[in-house]
Every structure is written in C-alpha cells, then in structure tokens.
Write the structure tokens for this entry.
Amino acid sequence: DAGVTQSPTHLIKTRGQQVTLRCSPKSGHDTVSWYQQALGQGPQFIFQYYEEEERQRGNFPDRFSGHQFPNYSSELNVNALLLGDSALYLCASSLGGEAFFGQGTRLTVV
Amino acid sequence: AQSVTQLDSHVSVSEGTPVLLRCNYSSSYSPSLFWYVQHPNKGLQLLLKYTSAATLVKGINGFEAEFKKSETSFHLTKPSAHMSDAAEYFCVVSDPTLFSGNTGKLIFGQGTTLQVKP
C-alpha cells in the first residue's frame, strides 16, 4: 500500500498565478481533507471531500477550491496566489477512522 | 468550539530522561483527542488517540497520554527519551462531524518542538 501520495513535492509560483496540487488517498479511503501548514504553525483545515462533494470547509477564502474524482483522488486549487499562501499543504485520507497524512507539497510564492 | 493549547513551544530533555508534553483542550462535546508527530521533511504520523474508552492511552514508540476531563488535559509522556524522538509534536482535537463514519476536521495545536540532547 503506497499510503497517501501528493504531487508535486515542491513548487515555486509567482504572485497572482494559479496552482493545482494533487493527492491520491490511501487505498480504499473515500474521504480526503486538505490542510495548510505555515512555517512554525500547526496545520489549518481547509476543506474535506466525500463522494465528490465538499463536506466541511474551514476559514479559507473562495480562492481555495477543490475537487474529488470518482477514484477518490483529489485536487486543491488556489487562484490569485498571495505571498501569504506560501506553506506546506497536507492531504489526509480516512475511512471512518484514523486520518493518514501525505508528506505534503511545499508551495513557495514569490 | 473546539480548540487545543500546547503549553510549551519547545521542550529540551536529555536522552534517557522522561518526556512530558502538555496539552489542554476545549470542547463542547465529548472529544476525540490525538497526538501526532512530525519529523523534518516527513508527513504527520499518529502516535495515539483517545476516543472515550480507557483514559490512559498507549501509543507507538513507548508514548502514552492520559485524558483528564476534570483538568481538560491530554498530556503526552514517555519514560525515557531517545535521540530519534526529536521532532515536532501536535496535540489535536477532532471536530465532530454530522456525517457518521467519517473523520471530521482536525484542529491542531501550535506544536511543541522536542529536543533530545545526548
């Protein structure tokens, strides 16, 4: 079992650009959640997807959007990037219990 | 609303001595509580979880935590620190979801950096 995989591992974007991050959940997991972890902080919940629908959302602007595909994989999209969006973005998958985290995507906005 | 407060941002211990990482929580519900560890450039790993069963929870790598409702605390302990324990530790409370059978959003504390000196 490959666990939760995220891609890319690192990327650099310019202010105002758009970015898409990808997540493949652990085998059989139907729920995917996304978190933002700024440097020196704990992860903050962005949103959760289940059955291709956004189920819960944290306190993030509409610039942050997502999608879940029929195979349960997920994308996180961020539009109009700001310097403050620089962070580690973590994906977690679950199936009625423990959440398993990927290693994250390090996004740097310059 | 649910929240967690980690009382120490940085803890330093010598190898072989006990570890204590402190966490207080606030919850309107009977909470589910977790401790996660994050090593540099690695993902978050679950150490242990409390879900209203035994109040003393044993986890991986010799860690354990005690749920104390009267003190709203969930402190993490280990009898003897190893060099490999040096990492960032997060106390986490789960926001209960309306949708049964799924893990709701996790609310993380600010983290405690554990330094282990030889």
Notes: The longest strand of chain B covers residues 87-94.
